Amino acid sequence: MIIQSLLGVVLLHLWQCGASSIMTKDLKVLVSSNDFPESALKILQEHFTVLQCKYLNFDEEGRTLAREELLNLIPGCSALVWSSNLPISKELLDKAGPQLKQVSTVSAGYNHCNPDELKARGIKLTNTPNVLAPAVAEIAVGLMLGAARRFTENLDQVRRGQWEIGFDKVLGQDLRGSTVGIIGLGGIGQAVVKRLVGFEVARFIYTGHREKPEGKALGAEFVNLDTLLSQSDFILLSAPLTDETRHMINETTLAKMKKNAILVNVGRGDLVEQEALYNALKNKQIYAAGLDVTTPEPLPKDHKLLTLPNLFVLPHIGSATVRTRREMAELAANNVVNGLTGKPLITPVQLK
Ligand SMILES: *[C@@H]1O[C@H](CO)[C@@H](O)[C@H](O)[C@H]1NC(C)=O
């Protein structure tokens, strides 16, 4: 009796799974990359018809080609797995059609996803926070060290074969004994504090909308922006880009920083007003900067920022590790599976 009813439950379950994947197989999901991790593709392919577009290349020519391909593939899709920083425009959404239910961005930031327009159209948005925090935090620490120890100038010496000799080499700044100020103590900011503990930092301070219990647990003190700017030796930008945070580092805020301050940005390029940063670095008003994000991306190779010896730049590689990219892709895929099969989204973005 028990065995029979168990069998019944199992059969029913199998039937439901089969039926739901048969029913969802005619839903189309577009992945905007052709080097999306295999494990994540499999998750999608189990349920849906998956279309893939050439990786949306950064160079203009590649971008135009991929754009055509994308616009050809997008009509009729139920979800987009968005693995590029190409903006989700109205045009793109119109082209996709009214059956589009979800955009799943393979990133933590979603400023490029046109959240207002998605909300207006009732399209759900999911992102991949948390899974990328450790990798981005590692890059943030790398940028702090790279800028403070003047990797740009020092690497240049090595490349030229002209090492400065003597006691007074290109001297840098210590993390040891410093005050580290974090603008935006979210997952990434917290992960940075955890990683910096071993560097004997004297004091962690942070600012944001409100004091956070995680801050207390990490021994970081909540302060206002002005205090953070005027007291920090290292300033980390790990806040999302919003209308409120855009250009929050500008001429005025740079002027409040210490002369030995090192600014690190792992958030978004537009948190910083770049012309003002250029001037501050050029005039040695602050000591150095380390950027993983810029405006635009890529930064043209003849951009004047790249003439600065006290700037250390990376090409937006914060989350670019094998493990992290795989985890991001799988989370993005599972979000779509849940979204299109009526289950709760794993990491929804609350659209305001
Ligand atoms: C500079 O940033 C501060 C703080 O984010 C802001 O209050 C101010 O309006 C900004 N100033 C300019 C000129 O953008």
UniProtKB/TrEMBL annotation:
One Pfam family in the UniProt entry: 2-Hacid_dh_C
GO cellular-component term (any): cytosol
Signal sequence, renumbered to the chain: 1-19
Keyword DNA-binding part of the UniProt annotation: no
Keyword Isomerase found: no
Domain D-isomer specific 2-hydroxyacid dehydrogenase NAD-binding: 141-318
GO molecular function annotations of the record: glyoxylate reductase (NADPH) activity; hydroxypyruvate reductase (NADH) activity; NAD binding
InterPro entries listed in its UniProt record: D-isomer_2-hydroxyacid_DH, D-isomer_2_OHA_DH_cat_dom, D-isomer_DH_CS, D-isomer_DH_NAD-bd, NAD(P)-bd_dom_sf
Residue stretches making up the D-isomer specific 2-hydroxyacid dehydrogenase catalytic domain: 31-349
Top-level taxon of origin: Eukaryota
Keywords linked to the UniProt accession: Oxidoreductase, Signal
PANTHER family assigned: 2-HYDROXYACID DEHYDROGENASE-RELATED, FI03731P-RELATED
UniProt similarity note: Belongs to the D-isomer specific 2-hydroxyacid dehydrogenase family.
Protein's name in the database: Glyoxylate reductase/hydroxypyruvate reductase
